[in-house]
């Protein structure tokens, strides 16, 4: 049995490296890597003082205009920046691959412990579907679960995109928490919980999984569950309000800005979309077209799927299928933070199911051994080998799209031709290569599909400004002034400069400068701006 476990570990390592090892030659992307790594002042110096600043809850408001309090994630970037710098992105990619490998192995070990604890609680309990009598093997189920995770194309975005480091770290500490908690190392598990929420907000789901483990696996009474929960809830009482306060400078809403009806409709649609992608991982791109209220066909299919899912979960409760229920809990709990009940700038993303997918793959593995494998072992092994090999190939192919900006955004536009984010990002890359004609065209396409897309307004306006086409630049900057965003102050300041220097309208310029200062009183060059406002009195 021990030898089989070592073979499983070796297969997991080989599979993961076959898919991701070659990504060590990739570079930075122009999609958030600049914000999260390249232009992030607080990670540029590795020192005791800078580390303290990272973990200072108020430190995010200093020299940082995208407010995210993920100090553990930033600490890894800080260490890498110290040793690699901006000229060796390959080091960052190697670290991402290693984190993925560790997570794959931790899934294997954690699910082994989970199944063994479940069996030890009730030695007469057989892990079976109705009509089946076969026992589960902890090693086999854990291995298949981890292997599906390792070769799933849905994981590619998280591993190959450096700005997804927070998801890799979140799952790392999530699984370490899980292992420590199951082995009754409660102090260590609590520390892992803290590290998880300091890696990414989604770590707040850990107390929910604590309840699921105690109820479905250990079957603890309610008093025992509450006792375990107290320190976790105490932390969340501080962490959640703070997070809601700083996120987007207090603009976060508990109902998505697209409306209450859309928020309600999106829940079944989200479940259907993600489960479909996990089992049929085709057409995967970084950004997707968001479903609207008018997508009645998608909503109808999703609603039917949702109702079937609800009926199935009810049957699981009635049949006391506790391992299934634990897997369902893992999936659903980890989807709640990305369900857009709390408004998110990106509505649908492959990376959103990186943690949640573990629950789906665990259930899939259970079904494989209790239904398919029991009926015809040889056929089941052949079919599963073909499926896993196919998934591995698709994952490797998917990683190739992430090698550089042009390849990534061209691939995205092949599937999402109306993606204004893709048009803007490919335009940014063309601009950096000196291909201004394609850059201007791409920015124009972005604004065609979303006239209020601030990054494209800024990019196209900046191009016109630098080329002396002030009559074209001014309307774009003025539009930025009217759109609530983190870059709103930039539009006001740029428009003010045009009115002052090129249209000789100091009174209008002063109004715009004052608005810029009010929107971002700690913006770069604020002293120069204040002096300019004072001179226009």
Q: Helical stretch count?
A: 24
Low-confidence stretches: 127-134, 250-256
How many beta-strand runs?
Answer: 0
Q: What proportion of the residues is helical, as a percent range?
A: 55-70%
**Pattern of helices and strands:** HHHHHHHHHHHHHHHHHHHHHHHH
Kindly report the oligomeric state of this protein: single chain
The portion of residues forming beta strands comes to under 5%
Provide the structure class. mainly alpha
Give the distance, in angstroms, between the N- and C-terminal Cα atoms.
Answer: 82 Å
pLDDT average, as an integer? 87
Radius of gyration, Cα only, in angstroms? 25 Å
Tell me about the largest β-sheet: none
Overall 3D form: globular
Number of domains: 2
Describe the structure.
By secondary structure, this protein is mostly helical. The protein folds into 2 domains: 2-255 and 320-400, no CATH class; 418-535, Tetratricopeptide repeat domain (Serine Threonine Protein Phosphatase 5, Tetratricopeptide repeat, Alpha Horseshoe), CATH 1.25.40. It is built from 24 helices and no strands. The chain has helices at 2-20, 33-38, 48-55, 71-83, 89-121, 138-151, 156-160, 165-182, 186-197, 206-218, 222-246, 260-279, 296-318, 322-335, 357-375, 377-400, 405-415, 420-432, 436-449, 454-466, 470-482, 488-501, 506-519, 526-535. The radius of gyration is 25 Å and the shape is globular. The termini are far apart.
Outline the secondary-structure elements.
Layout: H1 2-20, H2 33-38, H3 48-55, H4 71-83, H5 89-121, H6 138-151, H7 156-160, H8 165-182, H9 186-197, H10 206-218, H11 222-246, H12 260-279, H13 296-318, H14 322-335, H15 357-375, H16 377-400, H17 405-415, H18 420-432, H19 436-449, H20 454-466, H21 470-482, H22 488-501, H23 506-519, H24 526-535
């Amino acid at each position: 049995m021990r030898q089989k476990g070592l073979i499983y570990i070796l297969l997991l390592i080989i599979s993961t490296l076959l898919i991701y090892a070659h990504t060590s030659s990739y570079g930075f992307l122009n999609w958030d890597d600049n914000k999260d790594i390249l232009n992030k002042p607080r990670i540029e110096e590795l020192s005791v003082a800078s580390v303290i600043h990272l973990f200072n809850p108020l430190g995010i408001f200093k020299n940082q205009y995208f407010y995210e309090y993920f100090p553990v994630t930033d600490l890894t970037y800080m260490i890498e920046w110290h040793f690699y710098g901006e000229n060796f992105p390959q080091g960052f990619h190697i670290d991402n691959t290693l984190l993925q490998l560790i997570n794959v192995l931790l899934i294997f070990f954690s699910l082994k412990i989970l199944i063994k604890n479940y069996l030890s609680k009730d030695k007469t309990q057989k892990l079976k579907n109705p009509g089946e009598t076969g026992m589960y093997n902890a090693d086999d189920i854990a291995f298949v679960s981890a292997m599906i995770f390792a070769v799933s194309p849905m994981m590619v975005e998280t591993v190959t995109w450096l700005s997804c480091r927070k998801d890799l770290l979140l799952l790392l500490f999530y699984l370490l928490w899980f292992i420590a908690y199951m082995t009754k190392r409660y102090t260590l598990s609590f520390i892992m919980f803290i590290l998880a929420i300091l890696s990414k907000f989604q770590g707040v789901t850990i107390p929910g999984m604590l309840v699921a483990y105690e109820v479905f696996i250990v079957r603890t009474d309610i008093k025992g569950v509450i006792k375990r929960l107290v320190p976790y809830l105490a932390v969340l009482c501080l962490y959640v309000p703070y997070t809601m306060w700083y996120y987007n400078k207090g603009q976060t809403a508990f109902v998505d800005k697209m409306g209450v009806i859309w928020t309600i409709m999106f829940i079944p649609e989200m479940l259907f979309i993600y489960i479909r992608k996990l089992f049929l991982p085709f057409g995967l791109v970084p950004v997707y077209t968001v479903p609207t209220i008018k997508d009645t066909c998608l909503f109808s299919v999703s609603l039917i799927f949702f109702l079937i899912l609800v009926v199935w979960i009810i049957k699981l409760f009635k049949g006391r299928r506790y391992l299934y229920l634990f897997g369902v809990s893992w999936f659903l709990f980890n989807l709640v933070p990305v369900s857009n009940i709390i408004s998110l700038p990106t509505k649908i993303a492959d990376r959103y199911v990186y943690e949640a997918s573990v629950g789906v793959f665990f259930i899939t593995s259970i079904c494989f051994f209790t239904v398919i494998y029991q009926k015809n072992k040889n056929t089941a092994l052949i079919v599963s080998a073909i499926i896993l090999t196919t998934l591995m190939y698709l994952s490797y192919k998917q990683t190739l799209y992430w090698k550089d900006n042009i390849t990534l955004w061209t691939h995205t536009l092949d599937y999402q031709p109306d993606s204004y984010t893709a048009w803007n990002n490919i335009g940014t890359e063309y601009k950096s290569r000196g291909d201004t004609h394609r850059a201007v065209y791409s920015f124009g396409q972005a604004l065609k599909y979303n006239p209020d897309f601030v990054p494209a307004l800024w990019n196209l306006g900046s191009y016109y400004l630098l080329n002396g086409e002030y009559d074209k630049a001014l309307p774009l900057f003025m539009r930025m002034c009217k759109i609530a965003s983190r870059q709103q102050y930039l539009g006001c300041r740029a428009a003010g400069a045009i009115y002052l220097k090129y249209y000789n309208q100091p009174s209008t310029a002063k109004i715009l400068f004052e608005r810029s200062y009010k929107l971002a009183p700690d913006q770069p060059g604020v002293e120069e701006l204040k002096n300019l406002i004072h001179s226009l009195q």
